[in-house]
Amino acid sequence: VQLQAFGGGLVQPGGSLRLSCAVSGGIFSPYTMDWYRQAPGKQRDLVATITNGGRTSYSDSVKGRFIISRDNAKKMGYLQMSSLRPDDTAVYYCNIRLGPGGNYIDWGPGTQVTVSS
Predict the structure, then answer these.
(1) What would you report as the CA-atom Rg of the chain, rounded to the nearest whole angstrom?
(2) Helix (H, G, I), strand (E, B) or coil at 86
(3) What pairs with residue 34 in β-bridges?
(4) Which residues, in sequence order, are CB contacts of 101 under 8 Å at separation 6+?
């Protein structure tokens, strides 16, 4: 199974962006999907999670601004980001795991999001 995150770019503060994560080489429906981000010089942090049953959770820093979703038939995951702030600038990564404590597959290259005027 491979992952490809895309949809990043340059956006002004207050703007919106939708990231996508394509899953290939296997089925997607049994997996939980997580979105992480890593800013320069900082650790990779968990941003949002969606379980195979559709349950979602968010970090406090993005709660109320980001929405995670998935389309099992298309083998796609999404991260809708709104009210973006400069401190949302980071490389965003998606990954999948089989439930709590499950191992992640190989990390893909991520997609750069830059929030700047």
Answers:
(1) 13
(2) helix
(3) 49, 95
(4) none
Residues 50 and 57: their CA atoms lie apart, in Å, by 7
DSSP string, 9-33: EEE-TT--EEEEEEEESS--TT-EE
Q: Which residues contact 57 (CB under 8 A, 6 or more apart)?
A: 48, 49
Tokens of 104: 């992640």
Distance CA 34, CA 82 (A): 18
pLDDT digit string (tens) for the chain, length 117 residues: 899 999 999 999 999 999 999 999 989 999 999 999 999 999 999 999 999 999 999 999 999 999 999 999 999 999 999 999 999 999 999 999 998 888 988 888 899 999 999
